[in-house]
Amino acid sequence: MTRCQRSPQVIDKPVKERRVSPRYQLAAGVQFFHGPSGRNLPARCVDISRGGLLMYVPAASPVKPGHAVRLTLGAIGLPDIACLSGIPLQGTIVRVDRGSLLAEGHLAVGVRFAQA
Hints:
This protein has 116 residues and is mainly beta. It is built from 1 helix and 6 strands. It is 3% helix and 45% strand.
């Protein structure tokens, strides 16, 4: 097989986007209560939608997918999601990406909001 020929395992179907709501970049501080450890931890929001957010948390944070969290965001200047600011939001950690740990010193954590 030459390098230009397709392998039989290649799937021609495009990957379906799973997000229901548009995602917006948002650099904002987040306070979150980590249910399993009973601790309040700092975080930084990276992006957000009505359904969830991606945040960076300190490397030593004891976070795992499935853990319950309660988040509080400061003021959000984006009209479509301003309703999420200043109120406690219940959520579940759905993803913990340790890929940025060595290079940047934090964990990337995906949270799905319970209200979504």
